[in-house]
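Lab manual, section 2.4: Encoding a predicted structure.

Procedure: take the sequence of the chain (215 residues), apply the prediction step described in section 2.3, and record the output as structure tokens. A sample record is shown.
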Amino acid sequence: MRVVKEAEERKNEILDAADELFGQKGFDGTSTNDILEKVGIARGTLYYHFKSKEDIMDALIERYSVRLFDTAQEIAADKSIPVVERIIRVVMSMNLSGESSEEIMEHIHKPQNALMHQKIQRVILGGLTPILTEIIREGTRQGLFSTPFPYECMEMVVAYTNTVFDDDMVPMTNEERVSRIQAFIFNVERLLGAQSGSLMDVMQMFGNENGGNNE
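Recorded output:
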């Protein structure tokens, strides 16, 4: 007896299967036939939901983005966490997670996928900026920051980090990265009207994220 499933349920089954296969075999190593066999559906069913394998990759990126922004929103809303620490945690939450995350990021950084890379950057810029802006406004009320342009400041911050700290956009040595981070923090403090040195904890957290001591 043929099993008929709701469209959203079937779509998620396809995405789950593709996510697992991309993690195991890589994007290029996974064929649409592999996905069809794993889900147990006909080709017409697959193409009803997705136009191509690249379309599936786009949908996975969108699904990851929703999860990430939900996490960022939860962090931003947790008033038990100090404002500066919340800013850091929100920024650090913007990492794709899951079996196929590295494959996804490698795929979107290929020259032929420049539009996909641009899409991810646009999603992050549009989704992360308002979340950070609300934290900045809270910090302003607490007297930590003083800026008439909280949204614009955070837009600059997200655009810069999303570009300069993208290794494909700006290749750099560890020493150059440390210098960029120091300059970045120095200037963000001034953008926000924060006390000099008040954001330097960010330096240590970036150092830990890179897996080493930057002293």
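Check your result against the sample. Residues 114-141 form the longest helix (28 residues).
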